[in-house]
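Bench notes, afternoon.
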Amino acid sequence: HHGIYIVFLAVINLYSADKEQRVLGHAVIDVNGVLINFLVTHLSFESKELRTAQYATIADYVSELDNFIITGDFNTSDFSEYSVIKNYDMVNSTKHSIKTFPNPNPTSSIDNIVFSKSNWTFEKPKVLSNGNSDHCLLYATGTFDPNK
């Protein structure tokens, strides 16, 4: 079959203590017979301790997936917080820090695209500052190789 179809949707609660409930959204998208795991999140800004628990849940969850992309507001410029995730890379990193918050004069690199490095590559990351959000939109061109 040809086309793009959503074949699975899930919402996973992340530990949030008594703060605003945070989640990990997961969609499996069938692109011409290839299944892509696309996830989105918005982690806590209140403390590193909350995010540490949230990252641990995310790392455990994606460890079961063949491939993944996680996008969202990770609410940290400390790229070492991501390190619990295995076999990953990210668009926004120490080697290529992209300021995304606040908009229009960004000073923090808190938004990201995290991906399974075994089968994804991303290039040409950019931000779009159009006033539709208090964040600048982070985007990049991605290529998926299902045979890696």
